[in-house]
Predict the structure.
Amino acid sequence: MNNKIKNIKKLIVKDSLELDCGKLIKNFSIAYETYGTLNKNKSNAILVFHALTGDQFVTNINPVTNREGWWATAVGPGKAIDTNKYFIICSNVLAGCMGSFGPGEINPETNELFGTTFPIITIKDMVKAQIYLLKYLGIEKLLSVAGGSMGGMQVLQFSSLYPDKTYSAIPIACSASHSAQNIALNELGRQAIMADPNWNKGNYFKTDLSPNKGLAVARMAAHITYLSKKGLQEKFGRKLQEKGSLKFSFDADFQIESYLRYQGSNFVDRFDANSYLYITRAMDYFDLEKQFNGNLSLAFKNTKTKFCVISFSSDWLYPTAENKEIVIALNACGANVSFVEVNSDKGHDSFLLNVPEFLKTLSEFLNSIYNEVSNEKRI
Amino acid sequence: MKKEFEVISQIIQNNKKVLDVGCGDGTLMQFLKLNQQNNVRGLEPQKKLVQKCISKGLSVIEGDAEKELIQFPEKSFDYVVLSQTLQAFIAPEEVLKQLLRVGKQTIVSIPNFGYWKVRLHLLFKGTMPVTNNLPNQWYDTPNLHMCTIQDFVNFCKEKNIKIDRSLCLTNEKISEITNKNMFYKNIFSHLGIFLIQ
C-alpha cells in the first residue's frame, strides 16, 4: 500500500502553519485529487471534504484500495456533482493516512515515524491546510464546499473562516458541536484500538504487528452507528449465515455478525489505527459554537454564502435536530439558507448511498448556484 | 400566477426583504425575486415543495410556522407574507403574533367564510360548505379556524393590530374594503387581503 501512496498527487506546503494546539508545522504534504475541468473563469470549482474514514479519491476507482471512490454515488459524469460540469477537488485531511501529513509520516526531527508524537489536529487545522491547495490551484472563489458528517463540519468551519472564498456551502448530516453521545462513541473506538496489545502505545510500526483487532472492533462499533435500527432489521433481521439451525457456538451465526466482521477486517487493510485516533479526536474537539463564545450565529455574521443544510430522517448520529441548530443560527444572522430533511431508512450512511431525493436536492441546489454565478460573471 | 399573488406583489415594494410563510412551490417568491429584486426567504412544511423551491434557486427551509418562526429575529424582514393559511394553524393568534414580531409589516390573506356561496350552502343544503376556494369536506379539511372578513377586522381591532390596507377579491377583481362597504364586501368577496403591523 505504501508504494502506491508514493504515486499520488501531493502538494508540499513550504509555509508554516500554526496549529490550534500551538505547534508549528511546515514542509507538510497534502495529498489531493481533482475531477473534471476547471473552466476559464475558474468559477466551477467545488471543494469536497471527506468524512472520518474517507480520502481524496471521491469517485472512480481508488488506485490504492482498488475499490470505488467513497462518494461515487454523488460525484461523476452526469451525477449530482457532475464532473462534466464542475471541477471537483478533494484532499486527504491532516492526520489522514492517504498521503497527507499524518502520524504515519516520518518526523524529520527524529527520523522516526510520528506515531502518537504527532500533534493533535483540529477541524480548523484541516480546513486551514486546504487553503494552500486552493492557492496552488489558483482558485479565488469556489462555487461550493460540500461534505457529510466530518466533511460537513469542515464545510461549516470553512464557511465561517473564509466567507468570501465560496458562493455556497452544503453541510450534510453534521453538527456544529460534537455531541456527548458522539464523543462517547469515538472514545469507544479509541479504547478498542488502545486495548489491542499490538497497538504498543502507538509504536506498532516498530514491530511487525498491527492493532488490527482493535481497529476492526472500532470500525464494527462505528459502523452500527452509521445505520438505523429499521434499516438493519430490514436488511438482516435474524437471518442466519448458514441455512439450518443455530450452531451453539460463538461463531458468526447471524448474517449481521458476519457482515460486521467483514466490515471490520476490510477496514484494517485500508486504514491506519493512529490516524483513526487523531481524526476522531479532531471531531470531538469540534465546537464552532464555543469558537464564538456560545453564539453560533456569530460564526456566520454578514456572510453572503448561500447555505443548503441537509439531514436524514433516520440519522441518529447527527440527527435532524442538530442540523437544525445550524439552520437556526444562520436564520438568526439573516444568512441565506435552505434546509430539507430527506426521508430515508438508511441512517447516517444515507449521504453516501443512492438516496434519490437527496441526490436530486444536491444536484438542483448546485445547478441553481451555478446558473446564478454564471449570470453574474457574464454581467 | 394567481390574482391573489398579483395583489400581494403590488403591495410589496421593490428591493425589500420578504419572508413567505407557507411558500408552497415558490411561485410568489420567484416572481418577487425576478421582477421586484426582493430578497426572499421561504418556510414550507412539505418536503416535496421545499425541494421544488431549492431547485428554482430559492432559499427555503422545511418547517412548520407554529414552531419555526421563533428563530427569526425581531423585525428582520420588511414584509412577512401568509397566504390563506392562518385558519389552518392550531393556534392562529400565536402565529399572527410571531408574524408581526418578525416582520415590519405583515400581509395576511384569508378565505372569507362570509362569502355568499358559503352562506347559502350552509343555509339551504344544511351541510358544511364546499366551494372552489374551500374544496375540502368537513372531515378532511386542514382548516381549523375559519373566519370571515368581518371577524378578522374585529380581531385586529380587539388586539390593537393596525390595519394599513384592507383589500378583497370579488370575481377576480380587486377592491378596497372600507367601513362603509364592509357589509357587502363580507358577502361578495371570497378572499380578504390585509396589510397589518
About this structure: The domain at 2-178+287-378 of chain A is CATH 3.40.50.1820 (Rossmann fold).
